[in-house]
């Protein structure tokens, strides 16, 4: 298992480096679920965490998860695996949904400085599915803006953009 103090950024970078070392650009990787299962064995992390990290890597266009669940490694992943924070900031500036989530987090923080609503409550407030809230919150977790207590679906705010 990874150390508890390992940040999401460290985990994403570790998975990215593993993919770079293991797969070539020309060759597609195994399917999405199979790849997550392989990563679970290779890196000793839970498959669910691997799937979330793969979603983050896809959001950064470092991998491409096709409709048939085939995963392709992007050319830029080899040269830009460490430039994720810059890409997050660019994504935040262009993603209206992510800005709405950040705005709600900021508003909630003014009400209660230590926490914001659960994923279920956020989904209801924003009119989104819980899955969409989870995917968007991965961006905030990755940059260390929020910490998600996964068992209860609650967010603890660390800092905000």
- What would the principal axes of the Cα set say about the shape? globular
Distance between the termini: 30 Å
One letter per element, helices H and strands E, the order comes to: HEHHEEHHHEHHEE
- Share in helix: 55-70%
Q: What structural class is derived from the secondary structure elements?
A: alpha+beta
Estimated radius of gyration: 16 Å
Q: How would you write the strand order of the largest sheet? A: 1-3-2
Name given to the CATH architecture of the largest domain: Orthogonal Bundle
Tally of contiguous helical segments: 8
Average of pLDDT: 67
Task: Determine and state the CATH class of the largest domain.
Answer: Mainly Alpha
Instruction: Please mark out the parts with pLDDT under 50 across 5 or more consecutive residues, or reply none.
Output: none
Assign the CATH topology of the largest domain: Arc Repressor Mutant, subunit A
- Biggest sheet features: 3 strands, antiparallel
Oligomeric state? single chain
List the helices and strands and how they pair.
Layout: H1 8-22, E1 29-31, H2 32-43, H3 47-59, E2 63-65, E3 70-73, H4 75-80, H5 84-94, H6 96-111, E4 115-116, H7 119-126, H8 130-142, E5 146-149, E6 154-157
Antiparallel strand pairs: 1-3, 2-3, 4-6, 5-6
Helix pairs in contact: 1-3, 2-3, 6-8, 7-8
């Amino acid at each position: 298992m990874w150390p508890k103090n390992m940040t999401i950024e460290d985990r994403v970078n570790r998975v990215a480096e593993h993919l770079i070392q293991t797969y070539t650009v020309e060759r597609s990787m195994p399917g999405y679920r199979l790849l997550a299962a392989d990563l679970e064995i290779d890196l000793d992390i839970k498959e669910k965490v691997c799937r979330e990290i793969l979603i983050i890597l896809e959001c950064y266009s470092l991998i491409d998860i096709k409709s048939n669940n085939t995963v392709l490694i992007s050319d830029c992943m080899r040269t830009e695996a460490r430039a994720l924070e810059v890409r997050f900031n660019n994504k935040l500036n262009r993603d209206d949904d992510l800005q709405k989530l950040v705005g709600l987090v900021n508003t909630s923080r003014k009400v209660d400085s230590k926490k914001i609503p659960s994923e279920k409550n956020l989904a209801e407030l924003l009119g989104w599915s819980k899955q969409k809230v989870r995917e968007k919150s991965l961006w905030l977790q990755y940059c260390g803006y929020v910490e998600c207590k996964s068992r209860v679906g609650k967010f603890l705010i660390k800092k905000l953009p």
